[in-house]
Amino acid sequence: xxxxxxxxxxxxxxxxxxxxxxxxxxxxxxxxxxxxxxxxxxxxxxxxxxxxxxxxxxxxxxxxxxxxxxxxxxxxxxxxxxxxxxxxxxxxxxxxxxxxxxxxxxxxxxxxxxxxxxxxxxxxxxxxxxxxxxxxxxxxxxxxxxxxxxxxxxxxxxxxxxxxxxxxxxxxxxxxxxxxxxxxxxxxxxxxxxxxxxxxxxxxxxxxxxxxxxxxxxxxxxxxxxxxxxxxxxxxxxxxxxxxxxxxxxxxxxxxxxxxxxxxxxxxxxxxxxxxxxxxxxxxxxxxxxxxxxxxxxxxxxx
Length: 303
Description:
This protein is of the alpha+beta class. It contains four helices and eleven strands. The chain has helices spanning 2-64, 68-81, 88-144, 148-176, and strands at 182-187, 193-201, 204-213, 218-224, 227-235, 241-247, 250-258, 264-270, 273-281, 287-294, 297-301. Strands 1-2-3-4-5-6-7-8-9-10-11 form an eleven-stranded antiparallel beta sheet, covered by helices on one side. A hairpin with a 4-residue loop joins strand 3 and strand 4 (218-224).
């Protein structure tokens, strides 16, 4: 009986130790499996991050190479395949802002070049026209045997106008290089198209600047709300000039007007006409008329 009990106890103890050993080995296998799965997951996350960064760098390289559509397609794919990343919208918005800014700078540069080219061609046309007039005058001199002194004076005036045109073109080019000046194209109240280069406020010509009329006229001086206002000088296409005061785009105040014949007037103006006291001079400086003017007509002598 005792022997049987001993054998039974021995078997029970053996079974207990064998069972504990089995549980321990099973737990160890489970632990190793979980560790392996965690390690695979960690490695997978790192690979995913590396792959994400490579694709993002690829999209950025496309963007900065100017291939915007392809770049945004890649951004869109990354956003769909990585919903847990929240800043893709910020990346796209930042790239869109860069595109808009670049397009604005490009458009402004192209507009500046186009305006400058148009103004240059216009002045070259004026120079060509005046050159033809000079040549025509020289031919007329031979045909009509004009007095040398008179012909010389006319030739001098036209030559001076030609030089003034060249100087005006140089001034325009110099103004273009001025960093604080801006370009503007607008229509005045008389329907004339004006190309303006100068100070701008409220998207209009305000301050000092140069305006070139499409018909060939040119003004340099003070502006207010796209109008000549203040002191400045206007030159017509045929060479006549006015230097003096302007008010609301009209000659108003005191100023000097010079005709191509050499006559010139110095005095008061109102509403774009000679009005008030003033003197009309011959080209040699002698007085022709001196007194009071009204509506561009001489009314009364002051003598």
